[in-house]
Amino acid sequence: MSDFEDKVRETLANPKNQGEMQDADSVGTVGSPDCGDMLRMWLKFKEENGKKVIDRASFQSFGCQTAIAVASMATEMLKGKTEEEARHLSAQELSGDLGALPPMKIHCGQLVEGALKSALDQSPAEEPAKAEDSNTLSNSMQQASGKIRIVKLEE
Ligand code: FES
């Protein structure tokens, strides 16, 4: 087993920040109908030293183990980042301590990156996400059929 696979397995033994965030400021949902996986990410912001930074992030996934492990790493890494800093994080960077994503797993990291960018695109000031607005992931998954790449799913 590769070092990467070992780290994925370790992360899955204790994934961080899994589950819906009731008081989130924004939420992003993407799907990859190529593999059938989906991921939703919630963000909560706070003011820190005059800047708006990410206070917390959480995720829910119908995804492969790599996507869950990357999302766990990413939601930890995002704490304290400004919107601009978060927007520039690549799938490889979001993988954190997992190390470089193998070629066959890059799209798994991109699913996490896509959910993050989708959440960042939803400005908290304009359109706060309310828990009652968040469809279940399974509902969104049904809307994803027919798409051929990682896409932002409209609520
Ligand atoms: Fe689809 Fe990993 S196989 S996200």
UniProtKB/TrEMBL annotation:
Q: Where is this region: Disordered?
A: 1-30, 120-144
One GO process term, biological-process aspect: iron-sulfur cluster assembly
- The NIF system FeS cluster assembly NifU N-terminal domain extends over 5-122
Indicate, by first and last residue, each region the UniProt record lists as having compositional bias (Basic and acidic residues).
Answer: 1-10
Q: Cross-referenced Gene3D superfamilies, in alphabetical order?
A: 3.90.1010.10
Which terms does the record give in the GO molecular function aspect?
iron ion binding; iron-sulfur cluster binding
What domain of life does the UniProt record list for this protein's source? Bacteria
Q: Where is the composition biased (Polar residues)?
A: 134-144
- Enumerate the PANTHER family for this protein: IRON-SULFUR CLUSTER ASSEMBLY ENZYME NIFU HOMOLOG
Q: What is this protein called?
A: Nitrogen fixation protein NifU
